[in-house]
């Protein structure tokens, strides 16, 4: 399943907020994309 970066925007934003870094500093492992997609977003 191919996932676009835009569909992961909220997960990336929340990770950046939790880690205290900018969104560009957050790297999402492509091998774990399904896990990230399934995570609760709010």
Arithmetic mean of pLDDT: 82
Main sheet properties = none
Content-based structural category: mainly alpha
Q: First CA to last CA: what distance?
A: 23 Å
Structure characteristics:
mainly alpha; 2 helices; 40% helix
Can you give a write-up of this model?
The radius of gyration is 10 Å and the shape is globular. The chain has one domain (5-38). The protein contains two helices and no strands. The mean pLDDT is 82. The chain is an all-alpha fold.
In short:
The chain is an all-alpha fold. The protein has helices at residues 9-19, 33-38.
Task: Write the topology of this structure.
Blueprint: H1 9-19, H2 33-38
């Amino acid at each position: 399943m191919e996932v676009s970066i835009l569909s992961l925007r909220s997960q990336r934003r929340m990770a950046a907020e939790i880690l205290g870094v900018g969104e560009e500093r957050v790297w999402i492992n492509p091998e774990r994309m399904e896990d990230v997609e399934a995570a609760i977003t709010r």
